[in-house]
Amino acid sequence: MALLDSLPSAVSIYEVSPRDGLQNESAQVATHAKVRLIEALVDAGLRRIEVTSFVSPKWVPQMADAEPVCAMIEREPSVQYSALCPNGRGLERAKSARVDEVAVFVSASETHNRKNVNKTIAQTLEAFEAVIEPAAAVGLKVRAYVSTMWGCPYEGDVDPRRGLEIAKELLRRGCYQVSLGDTIGVGTPLQTRRILELFLAELHPEQIALHLHDTRGTALANVLVGLAMGITTYDSSVAGLGGCPYAPGAAGNLATEDLVYTLRGMGIETGVDLDKLWQAGKIAEAIVGRELPGKVHRAGVRSLAH
Ligand code: HMG
Ligand code: MG
User: Fold this and answer.
1) 112-137 as b/e, with b when 16 or more CB fall inside 10 Å?
2) pLDDT at 306 (0 to 100)
3) Residues pairing with 147 in the sheet
4) Residue from 53, 55, 236 to probe ligand 1 pocket by mutation (most atoms less than 8 Å from CB)
5) CATH assignment of 8-299?
6) Are 168 and 128 a contacting pair, CB within 8 Å?
């Protein structure tokens, strides 16, 4: 079948559960529990982890313990510890906390951007002048998100050409990769192909990642399109933890176990130990105190009848 004829041999997973997952939990999660989760994810073989956000604690109180989280993690040298960073204040905090990478974020739709960071898209890009170049100057890697690429909770359809212009600007300024966000999980495969065709006409596949929320169960179908088109970085969240506090209806990210299970079955290397990852999902579930939606998380890695 043509879709599956040329697939990458390896994929890089960017784990977002400690940030995208926990930012949306109504229960206050203790700092030591977050650290336990992060260390379990490292133990499972994940090597790129977004551990927290240096955003305003008034806007996202769940991330108010960013400094103690970073201070308490037992660092594994092969792991890239990353954090969300909206402005110069965030960068100063990120530098003091010794993260390896910061991630800036902006939406492809004005209304979501305004609700999320209280600024227009243009003002947001301007605020990144205090983040991208200064971070790179001190040796930090800088990643970027362009949210609402597949649809906006306030405006509906979004023109992907706007997202492409923003992405090109962020790459030009020094971000090494732009992660395209299906913030509210509305995307379907042909739409994903159209978006990626547009992006790949001007960018290299390594400059693009997919950040898919699995609200309607379409995330893996969209990953398949990404794989067929040469995209090798996918963001995901253990057990499907996740959401965005400023996107009503945004459910969890694609579950990391579902992604790893599928890729493993296709012979695509991720470096992740699925059994250990499943255990990390159990930790995530215990610390948030509610059932999490990931399919492999719920069904188990294998289903042998007793
Ligand atoms: P503002 O209120 O417009 O900004 O917020 P401000 O500059 O006037 O600052 C207000 C107060 O916040 C001041 O304190 C600042 O010092 C403080 P006060 O004088 O009132 O005491 N402040 C900060 N404190 C700590 N760290 C900082 C910081 N900056 C200002 N970095 C701001 C603007 C951007 C700060 C705010 O809107 C904000 O923090 N927004 C973050 C929202 C957020 O985190 N959303 C979720 C993440 S995005 C997402 O989930 C999508 C994604 O997953 C991709 C996808 O799914 O598509 C990435
Ligand atoms: Mg997200």
Assistant:
1) bbbbbbebebeebbebbebbbebbbe
2) 57
3) 107
4) 55
5) 3.20.20.70
6) no
